[in-house]
Amino acid sequence: MTSMYSSLHDNYVSNKGRRTSCVTLAVILGCLTVLGIILALAVLERPKAPKNHESLPGYTGEINLTDQCSMALVESIPLYLKYNDNATFGIPLEQVWKDLISIASHRVEVVSFYWTLTGEDINVNSTTDVPGRDILQRLGELPSRNVSVQVVTSVPTVKTNSTDLKILKQKGVQVRRVEFGRLMKGVLHTKFWIVDMKHVFIGSANMDWRALTQVKELGVVVYNCSSLAIDLHKIFQSYWVMGQPNSSLPQPWPAKYFTNINKQHPLLVKEDNISSSLYIAGSPPSFCPPSRTQDLEAILSSISEAEKFVDVAVMEYFPTTRFEKPYKYWPFIEDAIKMAAFERKVKIRMLISCGRDSDPAMLPFLQSLASMDYPLHHISIQIKLYIVPVGNQSDIPFTRVNHNKYMVTDKVAYIGTSNWAGDYFLTTAGVSLVFSQNIPHSAWNNRTLHHQLKEIFDRDWHSEFAVHLSDLGHNPDCALSPR
């Protein structure tokens, strides 16, 4: 400030100049005052870390933007599905779930659409349910180790004869069912784990033995990341509260559910010279406070920011609503894809699952989107169906399918729990982890999670199990194929 006053004094020496300097100084001070007010309001508007988490294990006060988080991709490859020996794979899902249970010291929280960890749950006698039985037993043993276990599931859910939750409750596990049908006319389709308020798993896998041996799944595990775990816990708490009898959605959500971590303010972490920014998005909108990035926004922004390519792997793709009648056209994701391909010449590849239970109504929408592929005008939209061979596993229902829900672009990676149809973003609960990573080009290699996810997509895209729409002949394992 001294130099500014000196400059003003040196430049204005006459009485008139002195009066001018006073006016000028007043204007400057006024501008600074206004700027200060604006900055103060901005700080006040920013969501604060909720005070009620001060007693949570792993909470250290302010959100730590330099957590030493360790991330890894997680996969489940169905039995008898064979790839080349040099293919890239994530850590086996069964191994990650067992690891999370074994390292738990005081708290485990699990959210799953439904629970069927034994063959009897779906009236099937199969030895391939052994890993599921093992997980169920290990979860049931946690309370005897003085580890608190809280489980949230959906009402309505898929029709099964499951006794999993009854068994777990008898062993001291706390269970709540969210009546999503009453609250939102949808379901709680979310799938995630939080362990000791510092380890997180998010992915496509429900608590189902078939997810371990019969269904192709993909997710991500994040270790030693208390900031992310505490943030995801806020979503868990919203489910837990809504699982109380006669609950009703708060309008608006209380401040304790607000988040400091979103698309505008991602969590910044560094591991092995790799800088990452990440955030958790959620749906439906009525379950998200204003500070939470919505799942649809995460998808649309990821597509709109891509400059070179967008690779999508998802079980179902419909530019419509699917469950609540009357059905409605819902073109938001499709419009973003077409705009990226047409206006910015971004290369689009979509790997859509096709199994025995896939809805044939999906085919016309995929054909319509693929018809835009026009290499002569540099418009590239390629669509393949991923078909898991059923083989001798035909007696197991709703299986042998690619259940993945992820996207990778040249900018970001997105790993979610929702299929790409309108209801999943309007009335159905889901979460996703969105991350981008930077590494010095001099040290570039395959260490980034982003690069590994791209390799997994390429592995599947070029595999014998991926078939171009135009090449789809009769295939008994794919309900979309000609009959």
TrEMBL record:
<comment type="similarity">
    <text>Belongs to the phospholipase D family.</text>
</comment>
<feature type="domain" description="PLD phosphodiesterase">
    <location>
        <begin position="398"/>
        <end position="424"/>
    </location>
</feature>
<dbReference type="InterPro" id="IPR001736">
    <property type="entry name" value="PLipase_D/transphosphatidylase"/>
</dbReference>
<feature type="transmembrane region" description="Helical">
    <location>
        <begin position="21"/>
        <end position="44"/>
    </location>
</feature>
<dbReference type="GO" id="GO:0003824">
    <property type="term" value="F:catalytic activity"/>
</dbReference>
<keyword id="KW-0472">Membrane</keyword>
<keyword id="KW-1133">Transmembrane helix</keyword>
<dbReference type="Pfam" id="PF00614">
    <property type="entry name" value="PLDc"/>
</dbReference>
<protein>
    <recommendedName>
        <fullName>PLD phosphodiesterase domain-containing protein</fullName>
    </recommendedName>
</protein>
<dbReference type="InterPro" id="IPR032803">
    <property type="entry name" value="PLDc_3"/>
</dbReference>
<keyword id="KW-0812">Transmembrane</keyword>
<dbReference type="Pfam" id="PF13918">
    <property type="entry name" value="PLDc_3"/>
</dbReference>
<dbReference type="InterPro" id="IPR050874">
    <property type="entry name" value="Diverse_PLD-related"/>
</dbReference>
<feature type="domain" description="PLD phosphodiesterase">
    <location>
        <begin position="184"/>
        <end position="211"/>
    </location>
</feature>
